[in-house]
Amino acid sequence: MNTGITSARYAKALLRFATENGEEQRVYAEMGQLLQSFVAEPRLTAMLQNPALPAKQLSDLLVAAATTPQEVTKTTKRFMPLLVANKRADLAQYVAASFQAQYREAKGLIEARLTTAVPATEAITERMRKLVEQRTGRKVSFETREDAEIGAGFVLEYDTYRMDASLRRQFADLKRSLAG
């Protein structure tokens, strides 16, 4: 079985179903939450592979892991039992990631992340968003993070591009040049 192809097919079907129900944006958020649940709870993968768990319990587990602050969508409620019934619950993480990628492609979105040592102001965030939009010609789904370990400056990431203007990187560069 090819995990990537199978996951992509399920994700494509989920995107089509979510679009038909007018819930694609909320399902996108739910799939993001599901991915976060896999990161936050590493035992989730093992639970999904446990043959002793009944299908209903597996389905409920996946729905709970995808739940956002809003009520779960009809699309997700109906999709998770299908995934379990077809013995593909162990692919849920891959399906969620593939769904998000296909959604962004369909909507012409690009994900970008700005990491700063201190909270970024709204003006700086908007300026960076516009910079990425100008360079890519696409809408930007923008996320900001704080990481005091970078010292100062920022790290901007999108697609395969990474601009590291952090103090941590500058110190690392200086250390390398002095050592060599």
Give an account of the 3D structure:
By secondary structure, the protein is α+β, with helices and mostly antiparallel strands. It is built from eight helices and four strands; from the N terminus they run ααααααβαβββα. Helices cover 61% and strands 16% of the residues. Helix 1 packs across helix 6 and helix 2 packs across helix 4 (55-66). 24% of the residues are buried.
Oligomer: single chain
Radius of gyration: 20 Å
Major sheet, described briefly?
A: 4 strands, mixed
The span between the termini is 48 Å
Going across the biggest sheet, name each strand in turn. Answer: 2-1-3-4
Task: Give the strand tally.
Answer: 4
What portion of residues belong to β-strands? 15-25%
- Which blocks of ≥5 consecutive residues have pLDDT under 50? none
Q: Classify the secondary structure makeup into a structural class.
A: alpha+beta
State the helix count.
8
The helix content is 55-70%
* H-E string: HHHHHHEHEEEH
Draw up the topology in text.
Elements: H1 3-20, H2 24-40, H3 43-48, H4 55-66, H5 74-85, H6 92-107, E1 109-116, H7 122-136, E2 139-146, E3 153-158, E4 161-166, H8 167-179
Parallel strand pairs: 1-2
Antiparallel strand pairs: 1-3, 3-4
Helix pairs in contact: 1-5, 1-6, 2-4, 2-6, 4-5
